[in-house]
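[Automated response] Your request has been received and processed.

Submitted sequence:
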Amino acid sequence: MNDPIVDEVRKVRDAHAASFNYDLHAIFLDIKKREKERGLHFVDGVAHQPMPNQILQQKAEA
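Generated structure:
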């Protein structure tokens, strides 16, 4: 199934990657630079997920 929107996104993404010779580090730095220029802020890192035992202990204490 061809979706013209998905095809266009892939085309743009590939052109962007090709402009950095598919260097993931360079692509990442460019994306972060664009975020900063536009005043965007994204959460850094991954949220901590409690372990199952912690959840059970919290419920028992409540």
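Summary generated for your ticket: Residues 1-43 form one domain. Residues 33 and 39 are 10 Å apart (CA to CA).
If you did not submit this request, please reply to this message.
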